[in-house]
Design goal:
Blueprint: E1 2-7, E2 14-19, E3 22-28, H1 30-33, H2 43-53, E4 62-65, H3 69-83, H4 88-102, H5 105-113, E5 119-121, H6 124-133, E6 140-146, E7 153-161, E8 164-172, H7 177-187, H8 196-202, H9 211-218, E9 219-221, E10 227-229, H10 245-252, H11 265-293, E11 297-301, H12 308-317, E12 322-325, H13 331-346, H14 366-376, E13 381-382, H15 387-397, E14 402-405, E15 419-423, H16 430-437, E16 448-452, H17 456-459, E17 472-474, E18 489-491, E19 493-495, H18 501-514, E20 518-523, H19 535-543, E21 549-552, E22 555-558
Parallel strand pairs: 1-4, 4-5, 6-11, 11-12, 14-21, 16-19
Antiparallel strand pairs: 1-2, 2-3, 6-7, 7-8, 9-10, 13-22, 14-15, 15-20, 16-20, 17-18, 21-22
Helix pairs in contact: 3-4, 6-13, 7-11, 11-12, 15-18
Length: 559
Amino acid sequence: MQILGLSCFYHDAAACLLRDGVLVAACQEERFSRVKHDWRFPAESIRSCLEQGGVAPGDIDLVCFYEKPFLKFERVLETFLSVSPRGYRAFLDTIPSWLHQKLRLPGILRSSLEYGGTVLYAEHHLAHAASAYYPSPFEDAAVLTVDGVGEWATASYGHGRGAGLSLTHEMRFPHSLGLLYSAITAYLGFAVNNDEYKVMGMAPYGEPVHRDRLLRQVVHLNGDGSIRLDLDFFSFQFGRRMYDRRKFTGLFGVPPRTPGGEITQQHYDIAASLQRVTEEVVLAMAAHVQRETGSRNLCLAGGVSLNSVANGRLLREGPFDAVYVQPASGDAGGAVGAAYAAYHLYAGREDRHSLADVYLGTSAGRREITACLDAAGMAYRILPDGEVERETARLLAAGKVVGWYQGRMEFGPRALGNRSILADPRRPDMKDLINRKIKFREGFRPFAPAVCEEDAGRYFSIDRPSPYMLFTVPVRTGAIPAVTHVDGSARVQTVNAGANPRFHRLIREFGLISGVPVVLNTSLNIKGEPIARTPDDAVRCFTQSDMDALVMENVLIVK
């Protein structure tokens, strides 16, 4: 059975191919269009998934979309009517996209893909839940989803057992932890549905001085972990702005930050306060879900589940023995969840297959790589197997910053050793150097460490694998300052020799030279660009930054 899962028309459009319950391919449209968080119909992602799977459109048995458009449209209309006439301009701006795109998916599939078969629609939070539970290693697990908003739900929970999955409770719009985080992200001068992770990165530089005020005036936290927002502080129900300027300025004592403007200590304190509240809400939700389900395992998905700091606290302080987070927890992962929901809940298939890794995208062979370099007039060397890792390790140990392009592209927001920029984590100046000269981004932004799985416990306070950079944990040593955040934590990636043998060998070779089997790992892109997909993308990133070397498969380019 071949199932195509889709998400689009909001942000992070994506497609995946599920064959007999096994995820064969998954791609985000932004990697093809080069438009970050591209929301449009994922035509190129679909073509790529089918090509990788050797599947023609006529071979597809089912297509499943990650939400129910008419139910979501109902919420949009009811919301505009409830605040009328204030939302009239936003209503006029929104309606054309619904009439021409969001309500016409079967017609778009017919014209774009020549597919005229069955199209299913999974509710948004069910797609999130399925994306976390079905590829997890658990036969029994509680499931919690938290994001901005789907159709009406903003958070939900339920229980998975075997091939069965049901969501039993939900929190409803407009009361939303995700929308709270996005509103304050906008207040701090960053882009909604794009820069929330920047606010998480700012938080350790501040103190949560507004935490009590937020919980007293803006967010009421109930005993079951649900929240209720004071809607006087927000305007997302009827306008483009997420927040009420006057109310938030009065609350925080500082006007909204202008995008690109100076970041002051007051802004860091706001970020710290929001982050603290978010962590406390997530912990309260998890505690309630554990009490209600009785399960010792938890599966997490939804955009809020990408908050690795909250996930780390949940791992250390929460009531569950094991926590699995969907690596692409945002809307891109909804495509995967839609496919799993169609396979298990619609088609009734009972076989489950844990996700081995997220290297589910396109790759490039040596011929394509060398053709790209020849066309660019760039000199290169082809290294034998084994020497690739040793030479790259030597470059890293010499203080060089290296682009690392290998195998199939990762699915999800993190570079996990196939589309990465690597550096020596021992150098205290390396974080500032990469932020300033290579990524061209804010100086407070942290970098993640990648460590051989078997060595993780020596350097980080973690007792289990963390292959997807989804948990921020304390650092045990002062030997890796470039990947240690200001609060002594790091968003760690543990690298398994079976899942990514070449990356594991590279880290091992670097450890033999340096004594530290850890490398700084960040995504192969510069500010404003999606992660590189093709050799051309990688070369452009290399030439437009101060990167010292680029390794694509066995091909080495040194400036």
